[in-house]
Amino acid sequence: MTITQIKEKLIEQIALSVGQEPSTITSDMMLHEIGMDSLKLIELFVFIEKEFKVQVMESGISQEAIMKIESLAQSIHTIITTNEIF
Asked: Of 7, 40, 68, 84, which sits most exposed with the smallest number of CB within 10 A?
C-alpha cells in the first residue's frame, strides 16, 4: 500500500468522524484543527489497527507524527513495509 493510499483512507475516516467532506481535508492539516478531539482520536487509532494492522500506541509512532495526517501516514507506511520484509 502506498503512502497516498494510506492518506486517502485516513482522510476518509477523519472526514466521517468530524462530519466533513473528505475534499475539505488535506494531509498537511493538524488533526486538532480539523476537529479531532481525544475520543475521535481513539476511534481513529481503532480504525488504523483494523485497516492497517498497526497498533498506534504500541508501534512507537511519536506524538508529533500523530499530529498531522501526512506524518501519520508516513509512519504507518514505514511500519507496514518493515513488517512485509520479515
From this structure: 84
C-alpha cell at 76: 504507518
pTM of the model as a whole: 0.91
CA 62 – CA 31 distance, rounded (Å): 14
Chain segment 7-19, per-residue pLDDT in tens: 999 999 999 999 9
Distance of alpha carbon 33 from alpha carbon 49, whole angstroms: 23
**CB neighbours (10 Å) of residue 30?**
10
Fold of 3-85: 1.10.1200
Pairwise CA distance, residues 10 & 76, whole Å: 11
Domain ranges of the chain: 3-85
